[in-house]
Write a structure and sequence with these properties.
The complex is a heterodimer. Chain A is an all-alpha fold. Chain A has helices at 2-24, 31-51, 62-83, 91-96, 103-129, 140-165, 168-182, 198-202, 205-219, 225-249, 253-256. The longest helix of chain A is centred in the middle third of the chain and has 27 residues, at 103-129. Helices cover 40% and strands 23% of the residues of chain B. Chain B contains nine helices and nine strands. In chain B, the strands form two sheets. Chain B has a six-stranded mixed β-sheet with strand order 5-6-7-3-8-9, with helices on both faces. Classes of the chains: A mainly alpha, B alpha/beta.
């Protein structure tokens, strides 16, 4: 299938181009990928730890807890904010050249995955600096990150295609992501949530995934198989539904651009 | 076997239904209405029951005034859009010279853009890399290929775009007005390449406002007016009728 080969090549090239656009034309280049989460972690660390006296995982330095949480959360949130504009930002391509449209939001998510790999390296350095030991348990993160990517891609397909028809989607997305972040165990741990509000975090799939990833990496906590399977099942459904939504509306893109 | 079969093709743009662009618009328009109903009522169909067939290796010009549906028809042929009613069947690989260099990224070199543009047109990375030298040579950009495209003149961009799009080795070549870009020498070079491809069996669909170009390049012509086919046949005959109509229109 020459078409599939070409589509895959295009996906990879667009992903690399996306990463290069971000870094090639800035003076600090790649360092932005490191500086950004680091500064955010310092600020959130100050607000939540020193002002609000929030506690992360007991025995883990709060800054490390927050930085790792922000790293995994950032993969989700940055992917969505990039992919939401991936179609509308390429209107001329969409109305002139017939290529598989789904490549655009997919490459946006993959490009943010590459950013994530860079900040993960910083996180690993930080773990070493804090004298913590990474064990075999951290391998769970491979499965968890794949789960997270499926969930993210599915949502990315929905928001990017809807944004073609309603530009409000990108505005709403920013709002939703902010609320979603605070409803997720990134600055706190699930056990800190009052029992009456636990339902909020229980069904928060991405929040659960991020927390399991963080706990496995910096605290060697085995995720519960039940939770992993639940998140995986939901993510597969989200991915498939997102794909179907995208496929069913993509023929209209060229008309409304 | 015909390469292209258009069977009673109707097209209305979704925009004509006043589909809301934003939430606030959605709330203020009580009813968006059905695109087809509104199009029927106001006569907003871009294409109204277009049918024709093109055999393999033929060259067909598409002529008509602004807004006659030429570009809509081309976009349906390339698969960028789908017809509202009816069907279009295209057998073979299509390459469309609709807007040369659409999708070029200004910050990247000509080389990088050729690679991505080629892949968007359906070539694998290996295939396009093999053809890279030919493309650069045809576009006469050997000295500039590693420079960012934003420093290219519009003619240079068009040359590169043309070279990539024709390197696809398509079965069907769709050319829309692009010969108006670039200087005379380049136009002549493009025209020669198009003729050459057509001679090798590539089906050609050619849209132009220049009757001379259509007559020189195409054996047949389709005359579109307000979304319908007025005449389809030998290009010289169709062009004569078309020009007669145009001039009487001006006199009246």
């Amino acid at each position: 299938m020459p078409g599939v080969r070409a589509a895959l090549d295009l996906l990879i090239s667009l992903t690399m181009r996306d990463v290069r656009v971000r870094y090639q034309l800035s003076i600090l280049g790649l360092y932005w990928g490191i500086l950004n989460p680091l500064l955010m972690a310092l600020i959130y660390g100050f607000v939540f730890s020193d002002v609000f006296h929030s506690k992360g995982i007991s025995g883990v330095p709060y800054l490390l807890f927050i930085f790792s949480g922000m790293t995994f959360w950032g993969l989700f949130s940055n992917s969505l904010t990039s992919s939401v504009n991936s179609l509308t930002g390429n209107a001329s391509m969409l109305s002139k050249v017939p290529f598989p449209r789904i490549i655009l939001p997919t490459s946006s998510v993959l490009a943010r995955f590459i950013d994530f790999v860079f900040s993960l390296c910083v996180l690993l350095v930080m773990i070493v600096v804090y004298h913590r030991h990474i064990t075999i348990v951290a391998l769970w993160d491979v499965l968890l990150v794949v789960t997270q990517l499926l969930f993210t891609l599915g949502l990315g397909y929905v928001v990017s295609s809807l944004n073609v028809f309603f530009r409000d989607v990108s505005q709403i997305l920013n709002l939703v992501l902010m609320i979603w972040l605070y409803l997720s165990p990134v600055f706190y741990v699930p056990s800190q949530v009052p029992v009456s509000l636990r339902w909020v975090t229980r069904y928060n799939v991405i929040g659960n995934i991020v927390h399991m990833e963080v706990a496995a990496l910096i605290n060697n906590t085995l995720p519960s198989i039940e939770d992993v399977l639940f998140c995986l099942a939901v993510s597969v459904v989200v991915f498939v539904v997102g794909w179907l939504v995208f496929i069913s509306v993509q023929d209209k893109f060229a008309e409304v651009m | 076997m015909p390469t292209i079969v258009a069977d009673n093709v109707w097209k209305v743009y979704s925009m004509t239904s006043f589909r809301p662009k934003s939430l606030s618009q959605m709330l203020t328009f009580r009813r968006w209405g059905d695109a087809k109903q509104i199009a029927d009522a106001r006569g907003l169909w871009a294409l109204k029951g277009v049918s024709f067939q093109v055999a393999r290796g033929e060259s067909v010009g598409i002529i008509g005034t602004n807004g006659s549906g030429k570009s809509t028809l081309l976009k349906l042929l390339t698969g960028i859009m789908k017809p509202t009613r009816g069907s279009i069947r295209v057998n073979g690989r299509v390459s469309a010279l609709i807007e040369l260099g659409a999708g070029f990224h200004p910050d990247f070199s000509g080389r990088d853009n050729v690679l991505i543009n080629g892949m968007m047109l359906g070539m694998s990375k290996k295939e396009i890399k093999r053809k890279l030298d030919d493309i650069v040579c045809f576009a006469e950009l050997e000295k500039f290929i590693d420079m960012p495209v934003k420093y290219y003149s519009s003619g240079m961009q068009a040359r590169l775009g043309f070279a990539v799009a024709t390197s696809v080795e398509p079965d069907i070549l769709i050319v829309d007005e692009v010969l108006a870009v670039g200087d005379v020498a380049f136009q002549e070079k493009c025209r020669r390449r198009i003729v050459e491809m057509n001679k090798k069996g590539v089906t050609l669909l050619f849209v132009s406002h220049s009757p001379g170009d259509v007559e020189a390049l195409c054996e047949k012509a389709i005359w579109l007016d307000k979304g319908s086919v007025v005449e389809y046949g030998d290009s010289r005959r169709v062009l004569t009728h078309y020009l007669e109509k145009q001039t009487t229109g001006i006199q009246a």
